[in-house]
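Moderator note: this is an archived Q&A kept for reference. The question asked for a predicted structure of one protein chain; the sequence and the answer are reproduced below.
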Amino acid sequence: MGKVLNLPICLAGPTGCGKTAAALAIAEVLPVEIISVDSALVYRGMDIGTAKPTAAEQAAVPHHLIDILDPLDSYSAAEFVRDAKRLAAEITARGRLPLLVGGTMLYFKALFDGLSTLPQADAGLRAAIDAEAAQLGWPAMHAALATLDPATAARLAPNDSQRIQRALEVIRLTGQPLSALHAASRDEGVDWPLFSLEPDDRGWLHERLAQRFDAMLAHGLIDEVKALRSRGDLSLALPSMRCVGYRQSWEALDADSFFDLRERGIAATRQLAKRQVTWLRSMSQRRVIACDGPQPTAELLAGLQRLLG
C-alpha cells in the first residue's frame, strides 16, 4: 500500500469488537495517526473501565483525543467534530493518514451528517426536567419523549438521563423535536470512508463482553473507581461517571455490595453494544466487516487496498 488516501478513514463498531487491534494492524502497513472517537477515552484517570489503549500502544502509533479532559468536565459532539476536523487537517498536512476509531456513534453521526444549530442549555429548564424525573423516573420521561420525538427516543435507552434531558429541553425551548433539528442541517457533514466491524453472531460478542468485564474487574476497576470517588468532587451526575462500568461500580460502592456487580456490568455493556449496532445500521454508507469472521483484519486491510486502488 504505497499510495495514501486524501480522505481520512473511519473505523467503527460496538464495544468489544476488536477496533483497537484492527487499528494497530492498519498502522503496521499505513502511516496513520489515530483519532479516538470515544466519549470515555477523553477522560484522564479512567483507564481500566474504558479499555484505554495501553501506553505501549499509544507510543507505537500517535493517538489523539485521549486523556484530554478531567472527569469533572464534559465534551460535546460539537466539540468532537471541531477537534476531529482540525486534527484530520493537521495529520494530512504532515503527509500521514487520519484514522478515526471508536464506538461513540453520536460523534460519528454528527461528523457525517453535520451539526444543527441547537439552542444553548437552559439551566432553569434543566432543573425543572430533573425535578420531574426525580418524581416520575427517567423511564417515564423517556416515554414522554417517545410521544413528542419518536425518532430520538428510539435511539436512547430509558435511563439515558443526559440525552433524554437534552431532547426534552430542546423541544421545550424550540417547539421542535431534536430529530427534526438534526435533519435540518446536513451540509456541514463529511463524506469519509467508514468501515464497520459488526458481529454476525451476537452470542460471540456477548461472550467477549463478559470476558472483557471480568478482565476489568481483575485488573482493578473497583480500585480505579474508588480513587475517582476519593477526589470528592465527582458524582453520578457527571457524564464521565455515567460511563458503562463506572456507574455500576460507583453504585456498588455506594451500597457496599458487590454480589451482582458483574451481572449488572455485563448487562449494561451488552445494552451499549446493542445501541451501537442499531446506530451503525442507520449508516447506509458503511462497509461492513464481520468481526467474528475467520480473518476480519485481513478483510479490513483488503478493503483499504481496494479504496487505495
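Archived answer notes: The chain has a mean pLDDT of 92.
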